[in-house]
Specification:
Protein name: Pur operon repressor
Number of domains: 2
GO molecular function: DNA binding
Structural class: alpha/beta
Strand content: 25-35%
Number of helices: 7
Keywords: DNA-binding, Transcription, Transcription regulation
Oligomer: single chain
Subunit structure: Homodimer.
Helix content: 25-40%
Order of helices and strands: HHHEEHHEHEEEEHEEE
Pfam families: Pribosyltran (PF00156), PuR_N (PF09182)
CATH topology of the largest domain: Rossmann fold
Length: 276
């Protein structure tokens, strides 16, 4: 690559780091890429690190030594997270979202790339320090959230199916009981989709009692996998007891009145975390 002016090099380096989160990048790679001395690259990285921290974009960690380098960890500030939550609350509390039976329409929100990416940043912040191999979700509405989080965590996505498909090859299937309807359903995961003893982050769009998430946890036992975290976009507080105790939610639905079409949304457990 031809030698760039410092301003252009800073822009290109920033973009390179943003596209490769949680990846250790040797300083020699940047030195060769920009035909610059390591000392100049180190000065550039110090500028980028300061800008990331001031703007709440994440952390830039430099590791010394022959095997060292620089690693970018995406994180979002609490102030920005609260602004995102405010947008989520305004959308969820729209009267026209209330469906017969007290259900809440959310599909259009999960189709908004900007919103989904911001929620993905919040999950990536909450689970940044966990040892993870994959992000898992169940089809279909949780898929955008899982990919958003996985992109920022630099992890592959594993999708649990509602039924076994020929294209998945041999699969493990289990029956689980929905926590809200008490209905017995089936979920399936291809054996090639997940390596045994993987560390897994589960992401779901909505949790009422937690039956679906508990089903995924039970399914993961068949792979001898470890659940390192559970992230939920919206949780319902209108249940006597959740089947899942350890989880991170972005928003909490505390009331849906089908008659008045009034909805009450509060901050989820994410905002109780001790995040830097």
């Amino acid at each position: 690559m031809k030698k760039l002016k410092r301003s252009a090099r800073l822009v290109e380096m920033t973009q390179y780091l943003l596209c490769r989160p949680h990846t250790l990048i040797p300083l020699t790679l940047f030195a060769e890429r920009y035909a610059s001395a390591k000392s100049s690259i180190s000065e550039d990285l110090a500028i980028i690190k300061e800008a990331f921290e001031e703007e709440g974009l994440g952390e830039l960690q430099t590791l010394a030594g022959a095997a060292g380098g620089v690693r970018y960890t995406p994180k979002i500030s609490k102030a920005v997270s609260l602004a995102i939550l405010n947008d989520i609350r305004q959308q969820l509390e729209q009267p026209e979202r209330v469906l017969p039976g007290g259900y809440l329409y959310m599909s259009d929100m999960l189709g908004q790339p900007a919103l989904v990416n911001e929620v993905g940043k919040m999950f990536a912040t909450a689970f940044a320090d966990k040892p993870l191999d994959v992000v898992m979700t169940v089809e279909t509405k949780g898929i955008p959230l899982a990919y958003a989080a996985a992109t920022l965590l630099n992890l592959p996505v594993v999708i649990v199916r509602r039924d076994n498909r020929v294209t998945e090859g041999s699969a493990v299937s289990i029956n689980y009981v929905s926590g809200s309807t008490k209905r017995i359903s089936t979920m399936s995961l291809g054996r090639r989709s997940l390596k045994e003893q993987s560390n897994v982050l589960i992401i779901d769009d909505f949790m009422r009692a937690g039956g679906t998430i508990q089903g995924m946890i039970d399914l993961l036992r068949e792979f001898r996998a470890t659940v390192q975290g559970v992230g939920v976009f919206v949780e319902s507080a209108e249940v006597d007891e959740h089947l899942i105790e350890d989880y991170v939610s972005i928003a909490k639905l505390t009331g849906v009145d089908p008659k008045t079409k009034q909805t009450t949304v509060l901050p989820g457990s994410y905002f109780q975390l001790d995040l830097k």
